[in-house]
Amino acid sequence: MSFAIVAEPVLGVYKGHVGSGELDPLPSPARLHAALLCAAAQGVRAVPDGDSLQPCDTDREALRWLEANPPDGIAVPQTLPNGGGATAYRQEGLIVKEGRGPLSDKLVGKPAVTGVAVTGRYAWTWEQPPPEPVAAALTALCPEVPYLGTTESPVRLVVADAEPTHRLDPDADLFTGDGLDLAVATAGRSDALEAAHRETTVAPPLKSDAHRSSEKTVAPPTVTAGVELGRYTRPEQPPPPTPWTSVLLFGMAAPVPPQLRVRYAVAVHRALVSLVGDGAPAILTGAYGDNVPQPANRCAIQFVGPDAPHVGGTALALLLPREADDIDLALIRMAAHHLRLVKVGTNPFAVKPPVEVAADEFWPEPAAGTQRWWQTDPVAVPESRPPRGRVREWSLADAAALSVALVWRDEFEKVPERGEARYQALAQAASARGVRVESAVRVMDGDVGRYVHKVHKDTIIQPYRAVLHLGNLTGSRTIAAIGQSRHLGGGLLVPRDLPDAIARRLAR
Question: Looking at the whole model, is its pTM more than 0.70?
Answer without folding.
Answer: no
